[in-house]
Write a structure and sequence with these properties.
Structural class: alpha+beta
Number of domains: 2
Distance between the termini: 45 Å
Order of helices and strands: HEHEEHEHEHEHHHEEEEEEHHEEEEEEEE
CATH superfamily of the largest domain: Creatinase/methionine aminopeptidase superfamily
Number of helices: 10
Helix content: 25-40%
Radius of gyration: 23 Å
Number of strands: 20
């Protein structure tokens, strides 16, 4: 992993040079972790062509050197911004970039007051551009997170019974993943039965799971910072004609988009493949979200597979493919796999069954 961190730092330095700035302040926690390896909850990075500083507070003085050996530790107490003038002087920096999407206005004012001698330059995406394609170490962790998610779904859903609440079902899934290696969930698990499934981001409630209703399950483990994301829609007992019709359409859209997914496509092109199938079946108005998104250290990151995305897919991108149809008063069907873009197409990492009926229920 340390070799990868050195490569990331070198690549960032090239981006800093291209951006025509002397140094970059990194405040976003995910970007901070990606570049340095530091996982603490507080701190800033300051990077230029030759220096790399990590400023943090007392809680992390022991942790920081072991996690971020390429960075010189600056001890800042509770007012890290006060370290900026000396760090910038040490770098001879006069034109300094900051992460405009992530730095609050209040913190921006603090930085200006702490170091009025420099020109503060807003930047966008200098670290995120590096994070879009995953390296081998990242893919190994993502594979672990996806495999754990698959196993949890396979082992736990046969325990679902009529009358069990959505909340109880979600906890069974979460507790299995935590016991078997997840540091936490990638996001709050969704278990949404019947009409609740018509809400794409429903929260588990005390509503009981009932036989014959669609149950949307959206879940993902986090392993050493990296997220998985998977959705399956199941049914306790036999499915009815509506379920089978909607399920078949969504599955066809999901499979078609997956089969087409390859480098040099735009996010919009992939989204259109799935959306056209659903629209031609008469349900276009009931598929209101994008086809998918990138995931890694954040559960939602670039690239996006959507009607507004012109970003070109590249090998190493990790994306979800998750079309859905949501009918108010009835419920929803969503099917989601996690895939990595390869040199010639994509590799689907998700292996969990797409069989809708749970045996024995």
């Amino acid at each position: 992993m340390r070799d990868n961190l050195h490569k990331r730092l070198a690549a960032l330095r090239e981006h800093i040079l291209e951006a025509d700035i002397d140094a970059l302040v990194i405040t976003n926690p995910t970007n901070r972790r990606y570049i340095s390896g530091f996982t603490g909850s507080a701190g800033i990075l300051l990077v230029n062509a030759t220096c790399a500083f990590l400023a943090t507070d007392f809680r992390y003085y022991e942790q920081a050197p072991s996690q971020a050996p390429a960075f010189s530790l600056k001890k800042g107490g509770n007012e890290i911004a006060k370290l900026l003038p000396q760090m910038l002087d040490d770098m001879h920096a006069s034109r300094v970039g900051f992460e405009s999407v992530h730095l609050s206005y209040a913190d921006y004012q603090t930085y200006i007051q702490a170091a009025p001698q420099v020109e503060w330059v807003p930047t966008t995406g200098l670290v995120e551009d590096l994070r879009v394609s995953k390296d081998g170490a990242e893919l190994d962790l993502i594979r672990q997170a996806v495999a754990l998610t698959d196993t949890a779904f396979t082992e736990v859903t046969p325990q679902f019974k009529q009358g069990m609440t959505e909340r109880e079902a979600a906890w069974l899934l979460e507790s299995f993943m935590r016991v078997h290696g997840a540091e936490q969930m990638a996001f709050d698990i969704i278990v949404a039965g019947g009409p609740n499934g018509a809400m794409p981001h429903a929260h588990p409630s005390d509503a009981p799971l009932l036989r014959g209703q669609p149950i949307v399950i959206d879940m993902g483990a986090r392993v050493q910072g990296y997220d998985a994301d998977m959705t399956r829609t199941i049914c306790l007992g036999p499915t009815d004609n509506t379920f089978r019709e909607i399920y078949a359409i969504v599955l066809r859209a999901q499979q078609a988009a997956t089969a087409a997914l390859r480098p040099q496509m735009s996010g919009k092109e992939v989204d259109t493949i799935a959306r056209q199938i659903i629209t031609e079946a008469g349900y276009g108005d009931y598929f209101g979200h994008s086809l998918g998104h990138g995931a890694g250290l954040d559960i939602h990151e670039r690239p996006r597979l959507s009607q507004s995305s012109s970003e070109i897919l590249k090998p190493g991108n990790t994306v979800t493919i998750e079309p859905g149809i949501y009918l108010p008063g009835w419920g929803g069907i969503r099917i989601e796999d996690f895939a990595v873009i390869t040199e010639t197409g994509c590799e689907v990492l998700t292996k969990a069954s797409k069989e809708a009926s749970i045996p024995g229920t």
